[in-house]
Amino acid sequence: MEARWLAVYTKSRWEKKVAELLTKRKIDNYCPLNLVVRQWSDRKKKVYEPLFTSYVFVHVHEKQFTELKQVPGVINLVLWLNKPAVIKDQEIQAIKDFLDEHKSIQLEKTAVNVNDVVRVLSGPLMDYEGNVVEVKSNTIKVVLPSLGYLMCAEVQRSNVEVMAEYRVPVINSSSYQLA
Q1: Strand, coil or helix: what is 60?
Q2: Which of 30, 121, 144, 168 is the most buried (most CB within 10 A)?
Q3: CATH hierarchy code of domain 102-169
Q4: Where are the domains of the chain?
């Protein structure tokens, strides 16, 4: 079986350390880091913080699951319906592209809803398709379904093409009767 991207759940604030330990064990991993400005009483400083709290992504084969759980700081694999949650290669690449283009990203936890399906025509997420959750001015929210998160970015409306619209069904009043 081929290697798949999965997420491991880590101890609080252990994301970077777990990624380092996985790298030492030659386990392919990705810990997305977000450049943010932190304010202290005497200064401001730019620091890299994990984008996803308590998560590190790993690209592994099923036979490596036991080895993953032995890494200090790893609590468990992230499960979906009692099986490891598989993350699509395109979603990992979308995160990488998004972080290359944008700084100080904010995540919002969300359930995936059925909305308009769009394709991004240009920019770091070019050719990616996703569900539009909200549009305000020039800000659109892009859903990463496997992760249950959405990322917010400034994207011009002209750079988005609607692929399929979600429409509320219309009830024909002549064929509908009250009981």
Answers
A1: strand
A2: 144
A3: 2.30.30.30
A4: 1-87, 102-169
